[in-house]
Every structure is written in C-alpha cells, then in structure tokens.
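Protein Entry — a single chain follows
Next Lines — sequence and tokenised fold
***
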Amino acid sequence: MRRKLLLISCLAFFATSAVAQSSGHYDYTKEFIWGINKNTNGGLIGGFVMKFSSALSETQFRTIGFELMNVKHPNEHRRNSAAGNPFIYGKSNYLYAIRAQYGRDFILFKKAPQQGVQINASIAAGPTIGIVAPYYVKVGDSRTAVPFGYDPKTVGPGKTPVLYSYQSITGTGHLFQGLGESSVKVGLNLKASLTFEMGAFKSNVTGFEIGSLVEAYAGKVELMPVEDNNSVFLSAFITLFYGHRK
C-alpha cells in the first residue's frame, strides 16, 4: 500500500510539474527584438528592424515596429568600371524607406521552456517615409562625382536626362553623398508574416521571420530614369532576429 501511495504521489508530482511547465513557466507580457533583413527589393542586407510587443491575452500581442530599408529597382545590376570600381549603370536615385508599423502577433504554437519552436502569425501596417537621394558617379578623370540621372543645372519638370556611357564611368561617389539633396515621399506599408522562435531560454528570443510586404507611395518613385518606375513595391523577406522578453 505504501509503495502504491508513493507511486501515485510521484506521478501526481510529475504531472503537476508538466502542466506548470507547459502553461505557466513560459508566460511573458513584454518582448523586444531587433534583426537584420534580407528581401527581394534590397541588396545583400536589406535593412534593419526592431519591434516592441505587449500582451493583450495569453495568445495575442500588440506590436509596434520600426524598419529602415534600402529599396532597389528590380533592373539594378552592379557592374565594374574600367578602373575596377563597382557601380550601377542607369541608377538615378536611392530610396531609403523608414517604416513605422502597428499590428498584432498571434501565437499559433507555444513552446515549452528551453525546448521546441514557437510559431507566431503577424500582421502590421503603418506609414512610410521614403527618402529619395541622388546617385552620384565619377566620370572620366574627374575626382568630383556628379548625379547620374540628371544635369544638376536643370530644374523642374523639364529636367534633361544625362546618361553617361558605360565606358566613361570610373566609379561612384562617397558614402551618403547627395543625402543633403534628398526629397521625401510619403506612403503606407502592410506586412504579413510567420515567425519561428527557437531560443534556448525563456527570457531570450532567437529565430527568423518570413513573409511579404506591400508598400505604396503617393506618386512614382524614380530610381532609374530609362526604366519603368513604380509607386507600389512588393517584396518577400526573411529576417533573422534576437531579443528579450519578460
């Protein structure tokens, strides 16, 4: 009889521990993550993201996110000049997208502490500020870079395209050159994704996010003057992220 009582007590203890472990020990109310993004409209590194989350219920979270992305034209191709310096022929402007996003995270599958994978579905939307900065190239023996797309002496709707020959370009301007001559485009963005969290400890978050994003600006954004330019950009992305929760 004593052995049966001891066995029942042990089983009850382990059952109670398992329930507590799966339902209570991994609960959290706040989370902060940051990550590096790769997307179909960006380069090797598309940009950077960060997101704050707070619990609305056991399986639903309110999210506020921010993103900084470099958006490229689909026909941009990097080449090497005769001097061996890389440049993008036909590019007239950079587009830097600064996005704010408000949304929801829904826990689809919740992992146990220190093991498993948590899967969340996410949706978010918000405003975008697009910074359109001129792209500068060096031509011939000149040490001073000039805008590739247009003659800087002409202004207004009648701007004259300046398409330097491939052979005449020797390189690009320095980093952030032309940023002070930027214009601003206002838009909206909408993102839907799935996140896979694989952190080994309940207070840390490590994983990746995959999804798609649509972004629309008020008017076309000219990135390459001799190509078709759009006001709406679609992209697929993957983000590697790390963070903390409590």
